[in-house]
Design a protein that fits this description.
heterodimer, A: mainly beta, 4-stranded antiparallel β-sheet, 11 strands, 57% strand, B: mainly beta, 0% helix, globular
Chain lengths: 112, 115
């Protein structure tokens, strides 16, 4: 595997389900990011981790819970989501919270 | 506040035409970065270019060129002799140099290159 990978690529869940999104980077970076891309809205930065410590939480509702167990892996745990949370969730990584970020292909989430 | 505006929602061209994607930004910072990313149908954003605010030299990379003009707060992207593989959504982004990882994205321009 190369670059940034995300699983699953597609996810459909009900509002009462609990699921997790996974991101893995194979670039040796030490910072990882979660973004939300909704239809007709600019990409929104959700969470930022640097050296496995969370450094940014952009007022994201608590039904989204990130986890970064090591510098290569990032998870986004989801519970009791709303239909408006349906979006493409993109993971990215960079070196040293740098400006150039490398993105994964995203997880297309649909909340019914 | 920082803001990036991509006024062109969708552009459709025929292969081999030249096409320019517009980007206008707003920032109070004197030092900042500007970016272009490409998002093909596969979903991942692909980094194309980063420019520093103090370097207004235009840049060319193959069929791609970028025109940075501080006077008009614009960072436009031109594809010369477009190809079908250029079809994608293109995003312009901005960040300040102190928190350079906080990218502020425009809403994107969808480019369709028809054969």
């Amino acid at each position: 595997e190369t670059g940034v990978t995300q699983t699953p690529r597609h996810l459909v869940m009900g509002m009462t389900n609990k699921k997790s999104l996974k991101c893995e980077q194979h670039l040796g970076h030490n910072a990882m990011y979660w973004y939300k891309q909704s239809a007709k809205k600019p990409l929104e930065l959700m969470f930022v981790y640097s050296l496995e410590e969370r450094v940014e939480n952009n007022s994201v509702p608590s039904r989204f819970s990130p986890e970064c167990p090591n510098s290569s892996h990032l998870f986004l745990h989801l519970h009791t989501l709303q239909p408006e949370d349906s979006a493409l969730y993109l993971c990215a990584s960079s070196q040293d919270l740098g400006p150039v970020q490398f993105f994964g292909p995203g997880t297309r989430l649909t909340v019914l | 506040a920082q803001k990036v505006t991509q006024a062109q929602t969708e552009i459709s061209v025929v292969e081999k035409e030249d096409v320019t994607l517009d980007c206008v930004y707003e920032t109070r910072d004197t030092t900042y970065y500007l970016f272009w990313y490409k998002q093909p149908p596969s979903g991942e954003l692909v980094f194309l270019i980063r420019r520093n605010s103090f370097d207004e030299q235009n840049e060319i990379s193959g069929r791609y060129s970028w025109n940075f003009q501080k006077s008009t707060s614009s960072f436009n992207f031109t594809i010369t002799a477009s190809q079908v593989v250029d079809s994608a959504v293109y995003f312009c982004a901005l960040s300040d140099m102190d928190s350079s990882y906080k990218l502020i994205f425009g809403s994107g321009t969808r480019l369709l290159v028809r054969p």
